[in-house]
Amino acid sequence: MFLEVKNIVKSFGSEQIIKELNFTLNAQNTMSILGKSGCGKTSMLKIIGGLLSPDAGEIILNGINVANQSPKHRKIVYLYQEDLLFPHLNVFENIAFGLRLKKLPENEIIQKVNSIIASLELEDQSGKMPHQLSGGQRQRVSFGRAIIINPALLLLDEPFGSLDAGTRQRMQELFKKLTKEFDITSLFVTHDLKEAILMGDQIAFMQKGRLKVYQDKTEFINDKETGVQDEIGFWDGLKSKETISKH
Amino acid sequence: MRNKFSHIGLVFFVLIGVIPFAAAFIYALLYSLGIVGVLNSGFTLQHWQTVLASSEVFKSFGYSALVAAISVVISVSFALWLALKFRKEFDQKILSFIIYLPLAIPGVVAAFFTFQLFSRAGFFSRLAYQLGWINEVSQFPDLVNDALATGIIITFITIVMPFFVLLFLNVYKNERVGNLSELAYSLGASSKQVLWRVSLPVILRKTWTLIALYFIFLLGAYEIPLLLGQESPQMLSVLIIREIKQFDLSKISEGYAIAIIYTIVVSVAVSALFSRKNKTLNEI
Amino acid sequence: MKFNWKPYILTLIVLLILFPFVYMVLLSLASEWRFPDLLPSYFGLRNWLKIIGSETGLLHSFLISVSISLSVATVSTLSGFFISRSVSYHPKKRVLTLLTYFPYILAPVVFAACLSYFFLRMGLFGNATGVIVAQFMITFPYALIFFSSFWNQRTKNLEDLVATLGGNQLQTFFKMLFPIAKGMLLICFFQTFLISWFEYGLTSIIGVGKVQTLTIKVFLFIKEANFYYGALSCCLLIFPPVVLLYLNKRYVFNKLV
């Protein structure tokens, strides 16, 4: 297993926000995690990314327990819902940021960044500042900035939450394409049912700090808790009403 | 992330931000109680009794508060009027720079300037003489070092009002008072109603803490009343420094007692202003 | 037709603002201006030439003021920036911020009077170092409060982001925090410079007349009733801030937007 999370527990004061977190994930797979706001999903991602320390538990990445490593050594990138581009840098420099931290040679940086910019379909935007970009473009830059440093694991916290429906769909497709192209392993948190089903190779559901991982999508769909059945019921109900009124 | 870096920061914070204040307070307290100091010989409440028995401290408090309050009220009213009436004009290129110019004038210069203009041998007195309104220096009204603190109030206003104009202009933009006013008009409000029910409440709600803070600043102002004030009553800072720094050493303890009273009053006021809401200057 | 009074009031406002500047310059060029003359009997560069001849020590005062204010502004802006980070990210942020307000709100002159004993004991009485330390104590809380809004959740997230992208603490500051705080750093430098530049009461107490900054000089000249030199020192006091304001408005405020 590429990623193994074992018995992670976290409390704030008397409230336990992460209860016995256990799951595994294969390399180059995406696990989508469905959860409402306040279910503990952001805390879970921050613990895995090293931005929050757990009370107990292990995070084994590629055979090494990283639970006590500082975030900069983990090679795990956490992406916020908000794109958080550096306001003082243009598109090119935002993407190049991680490479500049590593002090790579200039021509290597230029070549790598330009190739990512091409994959992201941002060729014409490279000199623009963040405030000149649309929401979808900003989110793409944010992806590029993370992917370029070749992270072992990508954590996505509702990355498309603030985008409109059309842009969102295009971004989902682009993300799928990129994960294949760059062999990305990721955890994808969302509150959108459809997105959870679409994006994940594996699928999980988080509620009140407890994560439930499903065998496959059928099990997920059949679980009453996830709300998939309600959704199906809603559309079926609409359909049958329509057929009744037609008669 | 908890790290060494932020711990060192906190240590420095305490060292520079907290300890000097505490040290100053404790020293003043001990001095006023006769425990430290040149002529003092042990714990006594005598200095405090003298201070509390004399009416000078309370007069000085009342006088300072009144002068500061009058100055703030006049400044705020004028500044509101200017900011609301000339909003568009102040946006123009040259004017938008000119309205910042008063910020380059410190209290000392403003006080000196008031003195030059309004004193009996000053510019306006000369003007009045040349115009034939007065025949002698003494006929010109006493506007500097006078009992009504005219000079102090004029100077306070010249110092504080420009700042308020800039503040209100800024808040008008940030709080989108313009859009809110348009909305109110479309809901059928008259321009008077818009002013009293929208513009003023929105602006003042956002700025009242800062206005209160300026009142406290003026309460403790030093150089302006030092130059333009009279012998008695004096404004607080002037009184405290006079007592502490004068040649009569026996008065020093009383000076520190007044300083303690002043510090407590101001600290309580600030705590009341900022503890209920977690508001800082920058949120304005 | 409706009478438009606005241009008249505006003109009046502009005149009122410019009047002190013009008047100070004129007064600094004058001498032997006795009551009730509306204009002085001498008008020329005599006073200014004397300064360059350094007879009054004004040039010296100017240099002292510049070095004191530059030191105070540099130290308080930088320390305020770093330390307000620790304060703002602390769970007890509210209490700590409240503590910051106490020295900020107190009249500096009273603060100085209560601290003068300690300055005396530490050998900081009557010298420029002492004045710098004392002024720093009042500009520091200002800088601290000034930067507290910068260290918000967004900045914290950006810092975390740099960490997950592989950056260390030093890189976080130099590659990200300093660049995005540039405008605020400049404004804070400007403001703390002004607080120090304008400071009179505290300087007079800690400097005991030995550290003669420009504000101290102005007071001395006024006490001697030497209004022409007084006006001249006022000019030296107000024109550097005017230049700074011009630069500030042009470069800083534009960049912030």
UniProtKB/TrEMBL annotation, chain A:
Pfam families: ABC_tran. It comes from the Bacteria. One of its GO terms (cellular component) is membrane. The keyword Transit peptide does not apply. The keyword Transmembrane helix does not apply. InterPro entries: AAA+_ATPase, ABC_SmlMolc_Importer, ABC_transporter-like_ATP-bd, ABC_transporter-like_CS, ABC_transpr_FbpC, P-loop_NTPase. GO terms for biological process: quaternary ammonium group transport. Keywords: ATP-binding, Cell membrane, Ion transport, Iron, Iron transport, Membrane, Nucleotide-binding, Transport. Residues 3-233 form the ABC transporter domain. One of its GO terms (molecular function) is ATP binding. This is ABC transporter ATP-binding protein. It comes from Marivirga aurantiaca.
From TrEMBL, chain B:
It is found in: Cell inner membrane; Cell membrane. Pfam families: BPD_transp_1. Keywords: Cell inner membrane, Cell membrane, Membrane, Transmembrane, Transmembrane helix, Transport. The keyword Cell inner membrane applies. InterPro entries: MetI-like, MetI-like_sf. Its main location: membrane. It is a multi-pass membrane protein. Gene3D superfamilies: MetI-like. GO terms for biological process: transmembrane transport. Residues 57-273 form the ABC transmembrane type-1 domain. One of its GO terms (cellular component) is plasma membrane. The chain crosses the membrane at residues 12-40, 60-82, 94-118, 147-169, 207-228, 255-274. Belongs to the binding-protein-dependent transport system permease family. This is ABC transporter permease subunit. It comes from Marivirga aurantiaca.
Automatic annotation (TrEMBL), chain C:
It is found in: Cell inner membrane; Cell membrane. Residues 58-248 form the ABC transmembrane type-1 domain. The keyword Membrane applies. It is a multi-pass membrane protein. GO terms for cellular component: plasma membrane. SUPFAM superfamilies: MetI-like. The chain crosses the membrane at residues 7-30, 58-83, 95-120, 132-151, 184-207, 227-247. InterPro entries: MetI-like, MetI-like_sf. Its main location: membrane. One of its GO terms (biological process) is transmembrane transport. Keywords: Cell inner membrane, Cell membrane, Membrane, Transmembrane, Transmembrane helix, Transport. Belongs to the binding-protein-dependent transport system permease family. This is ABC transporter permease subunit.
